[in-house]
Target: DUF1887 family protein
Amino acid sequence: MRTIIELYDERPVENILSTEVFRPERTIILCDREIYQNKSLQSKMRRFLRHRGIESKLVFLQTEIYDTERILAKLNAVIKRYPDCVLDITGGTDAALFAGGLICAKTNLPAFTYSRKRNRFFNIHNAAFADGLECHVQYSVEDCILAAGGAMRTGRVDNSLLYKYAEHFDEFFSIYLKYKSSWTKTIGFIQRASAAGKDEPISLSVRSAYEVKGERGSLIPAPEDALREFERIGFIKHLSIKRGKSVSFRFKDVQTRAWLRDVGSVLELYIYKQCLDCGVFQDVRTSVIVDWEGDLRRENVTNEIDVMASRATIPIFISCKTCAITTEALNELAVLRDRFGGKFAKAVAVTSQRCRSITSHRAS
Model:
């Protein structure tokens, strides 16, 4: 196979998956004027193919994607120049698909499609090579983001080191459940007790009064039992509590310091571990920073995804909340799913609090 014709689709993977599987010399993408003039988008698609080790050439041809006659004319021109071409009708507008059907009825042009649900290619017309062909392509979390024209930045967590801590994540979550009602105060105490001055370096050693100032002039006493639990699982060490007077301990390292100073980290780490343990996903990451433009400039729009996983070519976006989930949070998650995953991507909101029925309804 030397030439694949693609009907441009807003779902990123639909435009490149066949190229990855069949590795043609060239892929010709029929698109509208906006996409034809969008050199940045085209560059990102070529960058992704290079990232995946694919040398196929991408050629963009402009047409009116809602005008069947114009699409037919463009298809005829492509067939005349590349008589060995095949047509992928996985994506595209209704007019483009109709035009593809018409031209297949008049010629022997091979046509095939891909089913995300079955993860297989199927012969539509004269394309026996694709009939029932299983797709073995697997995307990492970063691949899913790159395929949609974005980029992945370094987040709060070094995912390459998480295996060192994973055995303690279930215990960490159990501690959270045990002290759930006072968790915000527990983390609040640690935040204030370990706060560094403006020009001071971050220290792993903590020495604090037994009570620290909370919000609105309140005092937060040392959460003795929770601190002892943190010491038991190895997140802190050298714990010394002088009731009513002082508290001192040392964080295991910078990473555990960050987790014990952040209210929501415990749920994120637990969900991350559950995604790993279920054995369904080929890649799982936490604290994924998505750069919308993909060029990593400082001024670009970014979003952080608490946990993200991928299965085959489908990304799953997971938002973790130890507080009640808001409509705004659901909307933000849906936007990320649609922008970087498309129709078959999944968005999941996880909360340790009861949801209002209206929120559950909106989520579904």
